[in-house]
Write a structure and sequence with these properties.
389 residues, alpha+beta, 3-stranded antiparallel sheet, globular
């Protein structure tokens, strides 16, 4: 008698074989995907190392990135909104808490944050409006909820930052720190993008502290004691009062003559297509550094609010709108940078696939509890690290 169908056992065996083959395929594809991301991470680390070597050759130290937002490298301090203990009472957490460790590792940031130019005011307003509408639609749309559009943080920072108070006509209003001088502000010609903001920001203490008044490259003149006046003159070479770039008849060429800016041209080719920027393409010395992610500053990207929202340490439930330039690893996360005075060495690293790491300046043997050593070791196990010399 001829069999007309498979037996139940044969079907079960076939299903098991197919399941095993599928698991092997998925595992291999996962390994391949991680390998590609790892290779991209290593390549970008090497590019950054080339830039840092160029910086050292020019200035005799590695970038002296000031600690920002997180006033110490204490990985046990309580953290809110990514900021170490904003209340300032030094409260510590029990055990090994990732948010506290991450805040300590980011004490010297990679991203540089700076005010939006006034010419982008309408663009930011439109994004805020679209995000608000999507957040409302998400209340009855599960697909939008799954994408994260119903999160209240989408609007934090936009509401207060665009309320019309503070600097009139600008999108940034907070009285707190409005600049974050991360690693990228040392590797890029910072005046080309930072000076496009409202001129009032150039009299802020954080700007004057982190930017020595440059001499006019044409006649070497300086105006001691009148920093704001000198900065207004310097800014006028390239931007009008609204932060809009002047036409080709401007004195923009003078920016390229300022030594601290011109030296960046030496390592700029390493950053071509490697940086994440909020608005538009960013081209310096003929090199477009943008990674080409078109949706980076779009209301279709629910992460846009986090990209440009800078936490307000005095009010962890709010923030304010700033622009940023950074560089990401293969998994879409920022690198970490650590360099202690006198900045003769550095550590640059990626947290790897698991997205977690541990402070390179803290020996694991210094952790008292065995479970903390094990946890920190697991976090660091897949790190991709490049040591400076």
């Amino acid at each position: 008698m001829k069999r007309k169908a498979f037996t139940l056992i044969e079907l079960l065996v076939a299903v098991v074989v197919i399941a095993i083959l599928m698991s092997i395929v998925f595992r291999l594809s996962g390994i391949g995907g991680n390998t590609q991301k790892r290779n991209e991470t290593v390549a970008r680390l090497q590019k950054l190392e080339n830039c840092l070597s160029g910086y050292y050759a020019a200035f005799g130290s590695y970038p002296p990135v000031p600690m920002q937002r997180n006033p110490s490298r204490n990985f046990r301090l309580k953290v809110e909104m990514g900021v170490q203990d904003p209340r300032g009472n030094g409260e510590e957490v029990n055990g090994l808490n990732w948010s506290s460790v991450e805040a300590a590792c980011r004490a010297q940031p990679v991203a540089t944050y700076f005010p939006f130019r006034q010419s982008y005011h309408d663009l930011v307003m439109n994004v805020e409006k679209a995000l608000r509408e999507k957040a409302q639609q998400a209340r009855s749309n599960q697909n939008l909820k799954d994408q994260g559009f119903d999160d209240e943080r989408l609007r934090r920072g936009f509401d207060d930052g665009l309320s019309g108070s503070g600097v009139k006509g600008d999108v940034l209003t907070s009285e707190d720190t409005v600049f974050e001088f991360g690693l990228m502000s040392f590797l890029l010609p910072r005046y080309f993008f930072m000076l496009g903001c409202h001129p009032d920001f150039m009299s802020r203490p954080e700007w004057l502290t982190n930017n020595s008044v440059p001499a006019d490259p044409q006649d070497g003149s300086e105006i001691p004691g009148r920093e704001s006046a000198q900065w207004e003159t310097f800014r006028g070479w390239y931007y009008d009062n609204q932060g809009k770039k002047l036409d080709n008849g401007s004195d923009a060429w003078k920016y390229s003559m300022v030594p601290s800016q011109a030296v960046c041209a030496r390592w700029m080719p390493n950053l071509e297509g490697a940086c994440r920027t909020c608005v538009g393409n960013s081209t310096f010395f003929g090199i477009n550094i943008s990674d080409g992610v078109a949706s980076a500053f779009s209301a279709d990207n629910p992460g846009v609010a986090n990209m440009i929202r800078y936490p307000d340490p005095s009010n962890p439930n709010n923030g304010y709108v700033v622009n940023s330039i950074t560089i990401l690893d293969g998994w879409g996360r920022e690198f970490f940078y650590y360099s202690a005075p006198p900045f003769q060495s550095y550590t640059l690293w990626s947290a790897g696939p698991n997205g977690k790491t541990f402070c390179p300046w803290v020996p694991l043997d210094s952790l008292d509890k065995a479970d903390e050593k094990r946890t920190a070791g697991e976090w660091m196990a897949d790190d991709i690290m490049q040591m400076g010399y």
